[in-house]
Amino acid sequence: MAKKSLMRRVGVLAATLTTSLLVSAQAAEPIKIGSFLSVTGPASFLGDPELKTLEMYVEKINEDGGVLGRQLELIHYDDVGNASSARNFAGRLIRSDQVDIIVGGSTTGATMAAVPLVEQAGMPFISLAGAVTIVDPVKKWVFKTPQSDRMAAERILWDMKRRGFDKIGLISGTGGFGASGRKQTLAVAEEYGIEVVADETYSPSDSDMTAQLTNIRNTDGVDAVLNFGFGQGPAIVTKNYAALDIQLPFYQSHGVASDSFLELAGGAAEGLRLPASPLLVPESLPEGDPQKPVVQAYKEAYEAHWDSSVSTFGGYAYDGLMLAVQAIEAAGSTDKEAVREELENIMGYVGVTGIYNMGPDDHNGLTPESFRILEVQGGDWVLVE
């Protein structure tokens, strides 16, 4: 009897030890953050600062002890701005790499290509792209950090209306971002008492938009002009606009809110306005603004680490990673459903881009007012609202 009792105790101890070792092994495993970004190619001005931000802060978080006592592991791929590649990489992150959450998708096209996969797999996904269609209608597993193109249109139209403009010319790229921005601008213009009296488009491969801008200039009653696009196109439009000496207020979308755009457009950008996060003008924020310390800290850290100017697109990645970390910590695990629920319940998170208040009907959590209106003065960004 004593021998049987001893063997039973030994068996229990062995099982307990095995369980403890298994739990310890699991706890030692890294939390895998997956990402696909447009690091090279035509959208590299988005993906490059996004990847640099993720790399920098994953390293910093690990130095500070990780998350839930575990290190973070960043697994990333360069989709080169190609939607098909983005879909393939999303599938690899889910099936082969078995990541815990995905923070990525530099462009709307890349994001939307991945959405069916993450929805089917039940993978929490925080997109860094702009179009409202990413989260409207709401998709169970999909969230995003940038303000939507609809919000950008609303903020621009609000500024136009308060300046007394009620008839505008619109020029937009035919790519995913530009086409969606055009659609949203046309959809909300009437709400602001503004009529779009000229509506022109250009291809991402076009190298001159003089003809389209001439048509806008020759349209009777135009008070101001808005270009909705990203990449090289808006810089070309800006230079053509200046060359034609169009004496009308000129707006760009948030798709060009970076110092790299100013470098591309040069002096032609003088006087244009756009909506952007406060990241480009942190020193102009009033004391007491809850975003000021967050924005300043990110800007200083990024520029010191990479010796290059910060951009709002890197800020989207910062917010995406920090929202993911907050959700995982609140869930107490990497259980995907629990993390998804915590993402959906985030309230009052002060980020670089804005203050996020998520909900079952809002997987972005921002308002149009999170955009600040900036103007180019003396070759630099200046806060005007």
UniProtKB/TrEMBL annotation:
Residues 30-379 form the Leucine-binding protein domain. The keyword Signal applies. SUPFAM superfamilies: Periplasmic binding protein-like I. Pfam families: Peripla_BP_6 (PF13458). It comes from the Bacteria. InterPro entries: BCAA_transport, Leu-bd, Leu_Ile_Val-bd, Peripla_BP_I. Residues 1-27 form the signal peptide. GO terms for biological process: amino acid transport. Keywords: Amino-acid transport, Signal, Transport. Gene3D superfamilies: 3.40.50.2300. Belongs to the leucine-binding protein family. PANTHER family: BLR7848 PROTEIN, LEUCINE-SPECIFIC-BINDING PROTEIN. This is Amino acid/amide ABC transporter substrate-binding protein, HAAT family. It comes from Marinobacter daqiaonensis.
